[in-house]
Write a structure and sequence with these properties.
Number of domains: 1
Radius of gyration: 15 Å
Largest sheet: 7 strands, mixed
Number of helices: 6
Order of helices and strands: EHEHEHEHHEHEE
CATH topology: Rossmann fold
Number of strands: 7
Structural class: alpha/beta
Strand order of the largest sheet: 3-2-4-5-1-6-7
CATH architecture: 3-Layer(aba) Sandwich
Distance between the termini: 14 Å
Helix content: 40-55%
Shape: globular
CATH class: Alpha Beta
């Protein structure tokens, strides 16, 4: 059985829905959903509410916009399955909270360490942001590059990688 699964794709590709369905198929009694979004506007608040309504109420929700590695480490032994949605939002949160490259590298290294811990299976959702145009500003380019490196590193630690395209799951690893 796969321990860590990365579900990656573009915006509105069906990543979250596929990951939720796959995690629920494991028939876990203790389900933990780690949300990385910190909604700041009405549109994002509505989006978060829609995601909540899609989940079975049995999911324990943990909000962790910055301390994702710690949340995984804390809940890995308390849950039968964990779904993290999403890595690129977490990465953006890290970049905006501390623009220092060392802080970003430390955060990613801590996430890698948390994924190596024994415990329940994890489903990790992430956006593929490098397939589009080159962004016009330095922050957006830095984010695109950091997301690409993050996705590579996390994919290397996962037993399974699924790329979502137009709602279709394409096995990559």
């Amino acid at each position: 059985m796969d321990r860590n699964t990365l579900v990656i794709g573009g915006c509105r590709s069906g990543k979250s829905r596929w990951a939720l369905t796959a995690a629920e198929k494991r028939s876990p009694a203790r389900k933990c959903f780690i949300a990385t979004c910190d909604p700041q506007d009405d549109e994002m608040k509505a989006r978060v509410q829609r995601h909540r309504q899609e989940r079975d109420p049995a999911w324990q929700a943990v909000e962790s916009p910055l301390r994702l590695p710690q949340a995984i480490a804390t809940h890995r032994d308390r849950a039968d399955v964990i779904l993290v949605d999403c890595l690129t939002v977490w990465l953006g949160n890290l970049m905006l909270s501390n623009p220092d490259s060392l802080a970003l590298e430390t955060g990613v290294a801590e996430l890698e360490a948390a994924l190596r811990l024994p415990g329940c299976p994890l489903f990790l959702v992430s956006n593929e942001v490098g397939a589009g145009i080159v962004p016009e500003n330095p922050l957006a380019r830095r984010f695109r590059d950091a997301a690409g490196f993050l996705n590579q590193r996390i994919a290397g630690l996962c037993d399974k990688v699924v790329w979502m395209v137009a709602g279709i799951a394409v096995p990559v690893k």
